Amino acid sequence: MRSHFKPFLLFASTALIFLFATANAFAVGGESASKPSEALFLVQIILLVVAGRLTGELMVRLGQPSIMGQIIAGILLGPSILGLAFPDIQAMLFPAGEGQKSMADAVGQLGILFLLLLAGMETDLVLARKLRRSAAGVSLTGIVIPFAAGFALGEFLPETLLPDPEKRLVTALFLGTALSISSVKIVASVVREMDFMRRNVGQLIVASAIIDDAIGWVIIAVTFGLARTGAVDLLTLAKSVIGTVAFMAVSFTVGRRVVFEIIRWTNDNFRSDLPVLSAIITIMGVMALITDAIGVHTVLGAFVAGILVGESPILTRQIDVQLRGLTTALFMPVFFGLTGLQTDLTILSNPAILLLTAAIVLIASVGKFGGAFAAARIGGFSTPEALALGCGMNARGSTEVIVATIGLSVGVLNQQLFSVIVAMAIITTMAMPPSLRWALARLPLRGEERDRLDREAFEENSFVAKFERMVLAIDESSSSRLAGWLAALLASTRQMPITVVDIAGREQHADVLEVSERHSQKSTSAEAIAAIIRERARDLYAAHEGEGIKSGPHVTTFAQDGPIEPVLSEMSETGHDLLLAAVEPLTAADGGFSDTLQTITRAFKGTAVVISARGILPQRSRDLRILIPVSATERSTRAAEFGFALSQAAGAQCAVIRIEEPRQVAALPRVSDRGNSNDDAFRSIKPIAEYYEQAPEKIVQRGGSPELAILRHARSGGYNLIVLGVSRRAGDTLSYGEIAETLLHTADRSCVFVETELPMPATKSE
């Protein structure tokens, strides 16, 4: 343990030496240190970042959220600690002049917006909708009780504790809000750290905190509008309430699509570094300005912007990493450090203030715990579950700190009340992790929870679930129409955006078609396939309404008159990771794949799926009959997942077939699950079938030619779609091996060749 803390102590010692050396330098500077200084601004930022990192690291090692360490860092550097021990040094490092303070405060204000943007991105609306009844009950009861108690406390506070007795109402509203809202960031981080995020109670705690946060920022926004006037003005109140409702309504309808289109267009058309990040910051800024214009706080605009960005079906992981790095490294330690700097805990030496702090902590804890506990018990949860909910909802942290900062900035909280609220936030947040650990450790794992956790563990390693954007390379062939149908099946359940690229006539008609005519032809073909996708998606929605099928994926058409290689290469770099290639002819006259198909698959850097339509395609999705050849390889299990995903979305029948060569054990024509429980091939696909709620027929056939055995059974069983897992062979020529190429040339029914692993790069001969 000692060796584990040596680097930490060395880092801390270096930081302290730097602090005193810097203070001495400014002391020597004398008069210049009292004027706004860029050098002093940089010193302040460095101190807040370094101290916040050190204390945050210490808190994490003690099982506490790092945010608490950042606030404590500010307290250590503020009047509570450094100001007591070395008042001259503290005054030189953080002078009271408005000019110098405004420089760091500007970074802190940006920090609030970025924190709310990230909080919105972390808001899981699907989870909140799923548990909306239970979560709403827990959240509303847990808000109303402490809010009422906090509001009543504000109404009865002595005038000596109020910054402006004429604004008592707004001060009471701020107190009620600060005592009643849980911090979703703290709650989610603790629940996630304890590996309880996917447990029933863990989900309910987070969902309730999400609703808490959403309601809280609306209350804060409206209260801020009141704070601007200092009294209840009905016209101002109506403007704030109606404006907030209208803003939320437009944001979650038209705004959701607009934000996605901005992200998609920026990502697909800009070539400079991090263009999507710039677009998101712009979206956040515009929405914050809108909320400011309607008379509510900018934090609401940033929070809603984060929710919409988080719901974008593309690039969410990349966006989250980019934003989180800057926010975590700079804005969070600066904002929370400045909060600690403004907190003067020396006021607690006053018995009246100490008593007020204890009363606020008691009201906040008992009110929140009691409200959540009562709602959980009324909702039918057991006592251990209700205890865990009560403990989990009692975390304040970042939300209360932001509320207190806003209240201080608009003059409805004074330094005393601000410090009391921050102290309450620190105490309740630090008490939450150990109490929640105690409560969660006593919760038994239910059977349905175990099944769901197994399903979610499967999703983490899923072959199909990893894809975010799909591109279709099509022409006017029947294979392209089949590709459009299959794309709708894959994308509708996952809301995966689809880009349709028409390459018809690119080479064959280049000598007889004018550029404008070729452009028109491509647009027509692409729109035709897009129409098929939308029509199939509507059919799926009608057939499976309420069962997870959404209204349909976002479809974009793309016409390109130049070479296709740079187009597909650029798409690979803009988040497209799944290619459905469906162009005719698929084969060349001398055997193998056509030059066009080879060009397409060579240019695309992600996973390719080659689609060949043969025979008569069924008119309805449920008339598909899918045959999936399997073996005990990872390649076949991934292809089986692809086939099961299609089968589940279509409501179709499927079967898996294993071909045994003559030298293997003699096989039965059909086998049951029990008879083949020890068979590696069937055993490997069993959890995949269960995840996709499929019960495929299992078939074993014997033969020396697997491809002929597959075709023979496909004909005898009436299967109209064969899904085969393939791997691209190394070399300059596209090849999937003998079985795939034989099926490609001889099959009289449709085939889907799923690349399940990328090829190894070909080595150059000397």
Number of helices: 28
Strand content: 5-15%
What is the CATH topology classification name of the largest domain?
Answer: Na+/H+ antiporter like fold
Counting DSSP E segments of at least 2 residues, the number of strands comes to 10
Total discrete domains: 3
Low-confidence blocks of residues: 28-33, 505-523, 663-678, 759-766
Identify the overall geometry: elongated
Strand order of the largest sheet: 3-2-1-4-5-10-9-6-7-8
- Helical fraction equals 55-70%
What does the average pLDDT come to?
78
Q: What is the terminal-to-terminal distance?
A: 54 Å
Q: Give the helix/strand class.
A: alpha/beta
Short précis:
The protein has 766 residues and is of the alpha/beta class. The chain contains 28 helices and 10 strands.
Any key phrases for this structure?
Rossmann fold; single chain; alpha/beta; Na+/H+ antiporter like fold; 3 domains; 10-stranded mixed sheet; 766 residues
Topology (elements, then pairings):
Elements: H1 2-29, H2 38-61, H3 66-77, H4 82-85, H5 87-93, H6 98-121, H7 125-130, H8 132-156, H9 168-180, H10 184-193, H11 200-229, H12 234-269, H13 275-293, H14 298-310, H15 316-341, H16 351-378, H17 383-392, H18 398-409, H19 415-440, H20 447-460, E1 470-474, H21 478-492, E2 498-502, H22 515-543, E3 555-559, H23 564-573, E4 578-582, H24 595-603, E5 607-612, E6 625-629, H25 634-650, E7 653-660, H26 680-691, E8 697-702, H27 706-717, E9 721-726, H28 738-746, E10 750-755
What would you say this structure looks like, in words?
The chain has about 775 residues and is an alpha/beta fold. The chain is about 65% helix and about 5% strand. It has 28 helices and ten strands. It has helices spanning about 1-30, 40-60, 65-75, 80-85, 85-95, 100-120, 125-130, 130-155, 170-180, 185-195, 200-230, 235-270, 275-295, 300-310, 315-340, 350-380, 385-390, 400-410, 415-440, 445-460, 480-490, 515-545, 565-575, 595-605, 635-650, 680-690, 705-715, 740-745, and strands at about 470-475, 500, 555-560, 580, 605-610, 625-630, 655-660, 695-700, 720-725, 750-755. It has a ten-stranded mixed β-sheet with strand order 3-2-1-4-5-10-9-6-7-8, with helices on both faces. Helix 11 runs parallel beside helix 17, helix 21 (about 480-490) packs across helix 25 and helix 23 (about 565-575) runs parallel beside helix 24. The protein is elongated. About 45% of the residues are buried. The model is unreliable at about 30-35, about 505-525, about 665-680 and about 760-765 (pLDDT under 50).
